[in-house]
Amino acid sequence: MNKIAIMGAMPEEIAPLLEYFKDIKATKYASNVYYETSYNNINIVIAYSKIGKVFSALTTTILIEKFKCDIVLFSGVAGAINKNLKIGDIVVATKTAQHDLDITSFGHEIGFVPEGSKFINMNKKLINIAIDVAKTNNISLKKAIVATGDQFVAHENRKKFIFDNFQADAIEMEGASVAVVCHSLNIPLLIIRSISDTADTDAGFDFDKFLDSSANISAKLMITIVAYISKNIKKLN
Ligand code: ADE
Description:
The chain has a five-stranded mixed barrel, surrounded by four helices. It has helices at residues 11-20, 53-65, 124-136, 156-166, 175-184, 203-231, and strands spanning 3-8, 25-29, 32-39, 42-48, 71-80, 90-98, 120-121, 141-148, 170-172, 189-197. The N and C termini lie close together (10 Å). It has 237 residues and is an alpha/beta fold. A hairpin with a 2-residue loop joins strand 2 (25-29) and strand 3 (32-39). Helix 2 (53-65) packs parallel to helix 5 (175-184). It contains six helices and ten strands. It has one domain (3-231): Nucleoside phosphorylase domain (Rossmann fold), CATH 3.40.50. The structure holds adenine. Residues 77-79, 152-154, 171-173, 196-197, 199, 203, 207 line the site of adenine.
């Protein structure tokens, strides 16, 4: 029987999920709270990790190793690098990279460490499901390369650096670390993010203004995807 993890980084990113799903049991573990529920006979565990690569890697590992989740879905917000992305748009990650992983002093490419890879590809079946579900619901879902780092980006220079080195469309602070864990443990991962800001000098202001609405846009699509997956789980297995 499958068990689906649905993660966010911040309370605001999972609030719409906790509102939607019923009969939730909260379990405290490792300085965090894990919310267990079920939906269409599928077990679900919801958690927010706290911001950044370390906390998100920890939460992902716990969702897989302790709670035995075998699919990980991430819903949240992102900053736009691609000029065609506007606040409120939704993206699905095709691959992730860590833009702040830097051992270039030793001749390695930015984002690469030995025995790792610069990019991690997301699960193609889950991407296609997300695109199909979005289409059915008349939602425009754009494919995006997502760059992750332990920094809130609010400057044109850093945006340019991330685009030049990763061709990233969107940036956030957890996707690539969640991907490292899922890839290492052979667990399919889907990342959906709605744009909260355009990572420029107004980004802090925009983020505060649009966090709730963009988190809600992402979570709503994710709930529809979960409904589809719960009815079509065989397509994934
Ligand atoms: N998440 C949302 N906006 C972001 C930004 N500008 N930088 C990093 N993470 C983000």
